[in-house]
Design goal:
Layout: H1 22-30, E1 36-38, E2 50-52, E3 65-67, H2 71-80, E4 84-88, E5 93-97, E6 103-108, E7 127-128, E8 131-133
Parallel strand pairs: 6-8
Antiparallel strand pairs: 1-4, 2-3, 4-5, 5-6, 7-8
Length: 135
């Protein structure tokens, strides 16, 4: 069961690049569509929130640059991540997966930038079964 998320980190947005709404998370799980494995590290997240996506394997076409409202939180999340990262273009989301194939985080990203939000690290109360939702 997916959590009902109430952002409490200074940002209440669920638009592209902001928090993952529970319906968004549910759709990413139930109907993921194409998933492109990425080479993505904390060094790929710019201070202004822009992220250049790089495919891990041969991929037809270019991947977009995407944006997050909380680059520091995503940088911290990626620095601690020890698994794989996938781009879900249908849902404009990044999915982090552990070595056992379980999703550990879902990050909503946008194609247009905006002002950065004053956010803190992901709140552990916004996790279910070790999965963090909400960046």
């Amino acid at each position: 069961m997916l959590p009902h998320l109430i952002p409490d980190d200074g940002c209440s947005g669920h638009g592209p690049g902001h928090h993952v709404h529970w319906i968004h998370a549910k759709k990413c799980h139930q109907e993921p569509g194409q998933a492109v494995e990425l080479l993505l590290t904390s060094g790929d997240v710019a201070a202004d929130g822009w992220i250049g996506l790089r495919p891990a394997f041969d991929h037809a076409g270019e991947l977009p640059k995407v944006w997050t409202h909380a680059p520091a939180a995503l940088t911290e999340l990626l620095a601690e991540h020890r698994g794989r990262v996938f781009w879900l273009p249908r849902w404009h989301a990044l999915k982090l997966v552990d070595s056992a194939g379980r999703a550990t985080a879902l990050v909503n990203v946008g194609f247009e930038g905006g002002p950065l939000c004053a956010t803190e690290a992901p709140d552990p109360r916004r996790t279910v079964g070790g999965t963090a939702y909400g960046l």
